[in-house]
Amino acid sequence: MRLTVPPEDAEQMIVIQWRDLMLSRYPELRWLYHTPNGGHRSKSEAVRFRRLGVHPGVSDLFLPVARKGYHGLWIEMKRKKGGRLSPDQKQWLEDMTSNGYLALRADGADEAIGILEEYLS
Q: What is the pTM of this model?
């Protein structure tokens, strides 16, 4: 029997559900948000989004809370197995790191939640 690996968006939804449950413990989580950069769009919509400032490679989640010497936390979500960073995503993580942010890849919801807990503790 072959088990399927949940897609990236399902993993991210788990992180957001966890956020909603943990607001009393970590009130700062109310600022955690998703950047709607990915997905498939029509050509006209893609052009419109570029004109609006959508930037390739921007990480999936951002927490604009300063902790541990960082300006904030960027998380690039990937599925537990088989997810790959695009060159733009790698560059974004490197750029944010060099500009004082903690910018990490998370393989699955458990890893992302662990990153968030460590960052906020």
A: 0.90
Residue pair 87/120 in contact (Cβ under 8 Å)? The answer is no
Task: Please write the tens of the pLDDT for every residue from 49-101.
Answer: 888 888 889 999 999 999 999 999 999 999 988 889 999 999 999 999 999 99
Decide: helix, strand or coil at residue 71: coil
In 3D space, the residue among 5, 2, 3, 4 whose CA is nearest the CA of residue 108 turns out to be 5
Domain 8-120 has CATH 3.40.1350.10: yes
What ranges do the domains of the chain cover? 8-120
Measure the CA dihedral 13/16/22/25, to 10°. Answer: 150
